[in-house]
Amino acid sequence: MKTSHAFVDEVDLTVASGAGGNGCVHMHRAKFVPRGGPDGGDGGRGGDVVLIADRNLNTLLHLRGRRELRAERGRDGGPQRKDGPAGDSCEIRLPVGTLVFDAADGEGAEPLADLSDDGERFVVARGGRGGWGNAHFATPTRQAPDFALPGKPGETLALRLSLKLMADVGLVGFPNAGKSTLISRISAAKPRVAAYPFTTLVPSLGVVDLGERRFVVADIPGLIEGASDGAGLGDRFLRHIERTRVLVHLLDAGAMVMEERDLVADYDAIRRELGRYRPELLDRPEIVVINKSDTVSDAQALAPVRKALGERGREVLVVSGATGEGVPDLLERMWEELERARAAAEARAAEAT
């Protein structure tokens, strides 16, 4: 039996909060209490629709096919001033990094919510208020009101959910550059690894543990020239690069040896795609890495690439995700760049306030 582990990063969903319960019309009746007066209770409040960020999720797959989710209606009020119970809220758990849009808004609209912290809650639709029972309307001149208020309706909203994975470091590069092998080497992530392009069809997240230092790395599925225009896997996964603080650009030494590929041209091609998608990505801290060093018999063969990129101010590290060669130094560089990026972000935030 085939098992599906689909990655879903966009979902359209309709949510509806519960209507409030109706107020009750009732007159108190007791054997020795003539004219007991109105005692109808209030209706209960309708349930809210609440979105909750959950770090244990990394896809919107559980919502695929769910056209509408509803909270519970509030119960009607009862006699003897008994208020109706409130309706249960509908809690929807979403991956950290989910953007919530009103589907009625066009492209480029601001999101209703950005669920960027684990446990963050956002009430996207509030339940309707319960109606008052007739006990509320008794006055000295109106001692037997025979009416009550209905509950207020809930809210119905069409949402567009868009997931952007939250990671500290993003691995980018051409297909088959060894991103999956590297992330499986440096973390407990187990992405699919094979000797052909587009092995990785979904982003993978891995936690790197350096003693008391930890950070999250994302393996972004392979890009090709023209990805920002829809070529290859298209720009579907480019959005997941946006939230990473540091980019690690992998170049494939094996392709240089076996296919006589120009790694500098490969580097430029990926940079062009990043710039066409979001120009600000070109200013993101970047570590350039020649991967698969185990496929090169003469290390001097890599010297021209390192020199050409060095002239552009890019220090180039050489590693092998398969054997682990150079990986410890790479991890230290990741941490150093990540700390610099965090400090710069804190400084910008301080200036803004």
Rg over C-alpha atoms, rounded to the nearest angstrom: 29 Å
The computed structural class is alpha/beta
Q: CATH homologous superfamily of the largest domain - what is it?
A: P-loop containing nucleotide triphosphate hydrolases
Mean pLDDT: 86
Distance between the termini: 56 Å
Proportion in helices: 10-25%
Question: What's the helix and strand layout?
Answer:
Layout: E1 10-16, E2 49-54, E3 68-70, E4 90-95, E5 98-102, E6 113-115, E7 121-125, E8 156-163, E9 169-173, H1 179-186, E10 204-210, E11 213-219, E12 246-252, H2 253-259, H3 263-277, E13 286-291, H4 303-310, E14 316-318, H5 327-352
Parallel strand pairs: 1-3, 2-4, 9-11, 9-12, 12-13, 13-14
Antiparallel strand pairs: 1-8, 2-7, 5-6, 5-8, 10-11
Descriptive account of the structure:
The chain folds into 2 domains: 6-163, Distorted Sandwich (Spo0b-associated Gtp-binding Protein, Chain: A), CATH 2.70.210; 169-352, Rossmann fold (3-Layer(aba) Sandwich), CATH 3.40.50. The model is unreliable at 1-6, 192-201 and 226-234 (pLDDT under 50). Helices cover 18% and strands 22% of the residues. The chain has 353 residues and is α/β, with parallel strands linked by helices. It has helices spanning 179-186, 253-259, 263-277, 303-310, 327-352; strands at 10-16, 49-54, 68-70, 90-95, 98-102, 113-115, 121-125, 156-163, 169-173, 204-210, 213-219, 246-252, 286-291, 316-318. It is rod-shaped, with a radius of gyration of 29 Å.
